[in-house]
Design a protein that fits this description.
The complex is a heterodimer of chains A (424) and B (320). Chain A is α/β, with parallel strands linked by helices and 424 residues long. Chain A has one domain (55-360): TIM Barrel (Alpha-Beta Barrel). Helices cover 30% and strands 24% of the residues of chain A. Chain A contains 13 helices and 18 strands. The longest helix of chain A is centred in the middle third of the chain and has 17 residues, at 207-223. The radius of gyration of chain A is 21 Å and the shape is globular. The two termini of chain A are 25 Å apart. The model of chain A has no long low-confidence stretch (mean pLDDT 97). In chain B, helix 5 (137-151) packs across helix 6 (169-180). Chain B starts with 15 loop residues before the first helix and ends in a 5-residue tail after the last helix. Chain B is built from 11 helices and 9 strands. Chain B has helices at residues 16-33, 58-69, 90-98, 114-119, 137-151, 169-180, 209-213, 237-244, 248-251, 274-278, 285-315, and strands at residues 47-52, 73-78, 104-109, 125-131, 158-162, 184-188, 204-206, 218-221, 259-261. With 320 residues, chain B is α/β, with parallel strands linked by helices. The model of chain B has no long low-confidence stretch (mean pLDDT 92). Helices cover 39% and strands 14% of the residues of chain B. The longest helix of chain B is centred in the C-terminal third of the chain and has 31 residues, at 285-315. At the A-B interface, helix 6 of A face helix 4 of B.
Chain lengths: 424, 320
């Protein structure tokens, strides 16, 4: 079946251009771009001058299977992703039990078939994510593990970690680290500074992120493993990152959409939907992160979608769960960066689609002939007020509840098949 | 009379005229409390529940006495945090209590913000009797009343707060209140007990106690929790006493008429010299306890008036 998408603003994250044109999809792949002659039997879709971009590749999505299916299933996460323009979910292994054996990986791979978008799985780097013994990295890769991570848990057993990294290097595996010094960050609910002091919250110095990153980078240098830092959120962590990149170390870094669009003051009167890990930072840090993504110092923006049920959020701030759902709000939140003039649409999609796909060795993330036709059609200007109860996720913990946002997904395609269409 | 608030959750929400209203009314309750017959009917017929998720003898007794002198039915619930029935959340506890129609809830909780959370779920007036390291508004108000009575004013004074500021809700509420009333504030603590970013509140910071006390009108000492004494935050209690304990020699750096305050309970020989604490020429620590009852009566009286007015408006169907 052939699809002819006409009259679209094509967002090209490789050439960093926006051009009005059309795009031809044939057998799930992009078959032509720009001035294309479509076969007579092609289905023609007039995009009405709206934006067409490669679908988002979201590195680091938490799904509640196995263990917490009441918070999120592959089905509900997949529907939310489709509605948010996310065409590839890279799932985290911090489930219960963790994805640390070929058997659990096979289970989630089977379950993920219920999602209408693509799902790839990261596996745990160490058994039970305990940071002591490495998992069967070889077997897990054979079954399709795309990267290895202990998610938000940081190993303090550096010997075990360095061995796991060395072993992973021999297989060419990608390690996703969480740069944070756990000795400093344990128990923290906020970033140390005026806000945390005024509200009396246990706080962590932003330096904990830099210490964690410096440690990981030293281990990467020692072992030669491919490394991606999941979330850089403070300006202090940028110099070591840039130094490592300049020295040719095989390292990339990501940040979260929340740390690019919110700051610590948004927590306000102890609003637990704004409790994240790492905690929201100062406005100075937020601005530094926006600039770092625009310049390419930080490669990837992720949603760090983390479902939490009502009970775990209706608690005093210190005791409440961390994390926010974000698959559906990812694109509209990113549009804040576009409308504020901080980044162009191609720059955003470079960080949300092309770079994560490249780093993971996936063919997605580009508008190019031969690439999979994973696409999102959206209107960057359409305004709406976010109502969390309209979210397709089973959990409704979004910090954007009640927020005025701009940017609506009109349609989402995976391998040329429409998996979401906006009503009306 | 200003002070229109529904709850007393913190000093942060109060305007300077609210603070003055509370102190003026508290002055009248001080007089009442010194009589033989100490009864008022300000809270007659009303129910006050004291819920303490953290142990406290002094504050709870002060609130209980304040309520009883105003004629309320007072009930104490000591719910040490660990004994809250497993599985029952804070909000469930609040809803259960709310169904019993209390008029005033006095709450102390070990987590910052927990009292705000509870207040959002109930229909009565809530008083924060201390939440985590966030606020302890009635303590700041009673300190303000003590200062005003001793110094004749609560403006343009140089006030030194000394000790474990990082973990102290008393320090936070006092900082906010005394700042709102336009005093010059100095914080004295070892760097491990000084909260981050606090210089942005408009205070001067000192790690040398003698320098910090220079010319002070008021010296407020804070309690050092015993679990912070050994190695974690300071090397030992004896080194702490040597550098940060208030004695006559260090106090000599303050103004000759400077008063000494402490929210209690005191660690004699850790943060304050025992003899100095008992010296009635310098120490107003006993007055603070007395002012505590009067200030709490004033707060509850004002909140009860607002509650009655609100219910009256609801009864006649007027939009608030």
């Amino acid at each position: 079946m052939t699809l002819h998408l006409t009259n679209a603003r094509l967002i090209d994250p490789e050439g960093l251009t926006v051009t009005l044109g059309s795009l031809l999809v044939d057998r799930g792949l992009i078959a032509g771009i720009g001035e294309v002659t479509a076969p007579k039997d092609a289905t023609v879709i007039d995009c009405g001058g709206k934006c067409l971009a490669p679908g988002i590749v979201d590195l680091g999505v938490k799904i509640g299977e196995p263990g917490e299916r009441h918070k999120e299933s592959f089905r509900s996460a997949g529907l939310a992703a489709a509605a948010g323009g996310v065409t590839t979910i890279i799932a985290r292994p911090d489930t219960n039990p963790a994805i640390d054996t070929p058997e659990t990986l096979e289970f989630v791979t089977r379950r993920a078939a219920e999602a209408p978008v693509r799902v790839r799985h990261m596996a745990a780097l160490t058994k039970g994510r305990d940071g002591q013994e490495m998992t069967e990295i070889g077997f897990l890769m054979d079954i399709g593990a795309i990267a290895f991570t202990d998610a938000m848990r940081v190993s303090t057993n550096i010997k075990a970690l360095s061995r796991a990294m060395s072993y992973a290097r021999s297989l060419g595996a990608l390690i996703v680290g969480h740069p944070q010094e756990p000795g400093l960050s344990a128990g923290a609910a906020a970033t140390s500074g005026k806000f945390a002091s005024l509200y009396g919250l246990p706080a962590v110095s932003p330096m904990a992120e830099r210490i964690g990153l410096e440690r990981d980078l030293a281990l990467v240098e020692m072992t030669g493993v491919r490394y991606h830092a999941d979330q850089i959120t403070t300006a202090m962590a940028l110099p070591p990152l840039l130094r490592a990149k300049a020295a040719g170390v095989d390292v990339t870094a990501g940040t979260s959409i929340h740390h690019l669009t919110l700051n610590e003051l948004d927590v306000g009167d102890y609003r637990t939907f704004f409790k994240l890990s790492p905690p929201l930072r100062s406005e100075t840090d937020r601005l530094a992160m926006v600039e770092a993504v625009a310049s390419g110092a930080i490669d990837v923006i992720s949603s760090f979608h983390t479902p939490a049920d009502e009970e775990s959020k209706r608690l005093p701030f210190e005791e409440a769960a961390s994390g926010a759902v974000a698959l559906e709000t990812f694109l509209p939140a990113a549009m804040r960066l576009y409308h504020s003039g901080a980044m162009t649409l191609p720059q955003l999609f470079r960080a949300m689609a092309r770079n994560p796909a490249d780093r993971l060795g996936l063919p997605q993330g580009r508008l190019a002939v031969g690439a999979p036709a994973d696409l999102v059609l959206f209107d960057p200007d359409a305004p709406f007020v976010m109502d969390r109860f309209t979210l397709r996720s089973k959990s409704k913990n979004t910090p954007f509840d009640g927020a005025r946002m701009e940017g609506k997904v009109l349609a989402t395609y995976v391998a040329g098949t429409r998996v979401f269409a906006a009503e009306g | 009379m200003s002070f229109r608030a529904r709850h007393l959750l913190g000093i942060d929400h109060l305007a300077p005229q609210d603070i003055t209203s509370v102190l003026d009314l508290a002055d009248r309750y001080v007089d009442l409390n010194r009589r033989t017959v100490k009864q008022s009917d300000a809270l007659a017929g009303m129910t006050q529940i004291n819920m303490f998720f953290e142990n406290s003898t002094r504050t709870q007794a002060s609130f209980e006495l304040a309520g009883k002198r105003l004629g309320a039915d007072v009930m104490n619930m000591s719910v040490a945090h660990s004994s809250v029935k497993k599985g029952e959340t804070l909000i469930d506890t609040a809803l259960t209590l709310n169904a019993m129609h209390p008029d005033l809830l006095v709450i102390r909780h070990p987590s910052s913000g927990a009292v705000n959370l509870l207040a959002s779920k109930v229909n009565c007036a809530v008083i924060n009797a201390g939440d985590g390291r966030h606020e302890h508004p009635t303590q700041a108000l009673l300190d303000a009343l003590t200062i005003r009575r001793a110094k004749g004013r609560i403006q343009r004074l140089t006030i030194a707060i000394c000790g474990d500021i990082a973990h102290s809700r008393v320090a936070r509420s006092n900082l906010i209140l005394l700042g709102k009333m336009e005093n010059r504030l100095r914080l004295i603590a070892p760097p491990t007990l000084m909260p981050a970013g606090v210089q942005d509140f408009g205070c001067e910071l000192f790690d040398d106690m003698r320098q910090g006390l220079e010319g002070a009108d008021v010296v407020m000492m804070l309690r050092l929790q015993s679990e912070r004494m050994d190695g974690g935050f300071i090397p030992s209690s004896r080194e702490y006493y040597h550098r940060y304990g208030l004695d006559a020699e260090k106090l000599a750096h303050a103004r000759p008429d400077a008063i000494v305050m402490h929210p209690g309970p005191m660690n004699r020989g850790v943060e304050i010299d025992g003899e100095l604490a008992d010296d009635i020429r310098r120490s107003v620590i006993q007055e603070q306890v007395e002012m505590g009852v009067a200030v709490r009566m004033a707060c509850m009286d004002l909140l009860a008036r607002n509650l009655r007015a609100e219910r009256g408006r609801q009864a006649v169907g007027v939009m608030v």
